Amino acid sequence: MTALTELPERPRPDADEDSGSGDTPSTSHERFGLSLQPLTSESAQHYGLDTDDQGLLVTRVDPSSSAAAAGIRQGDLIQEVNRQPVKTFAEFSSALRQSGSRPALVLIKRRNNVIYLTLKSTT
Fold first, then answer.
1. Mean pLDDT, residues 28-39
2. CA 63, CA 73: separation in Å to the nearest integer?
């Protein structure tokens, strides 16, 4: 006789996820519809990134946002904005402000691929 058991709950892909690190601060950028956090060794391993990579990890993307329209996904690592390296929220925000009303050029690392995407402001 076989007994049925309930599987443990797994987080949905669209749920806020901080890769198990409750102490890692994250910030949300409503203007673009994404949430970011600094890359940790745990989150790098979880998303298949190198632990020596630097940038801001995308932890959530609003499906109806400009970030989603640009092709940014949860687990992407934002390494540059407008050819300026970004490792902190302040650097990210500053580089975006310099774009003004123009789209921002964003360098993304997705696992072993590096791509440029154009991020447009919705405001």
1. 84
2. 9
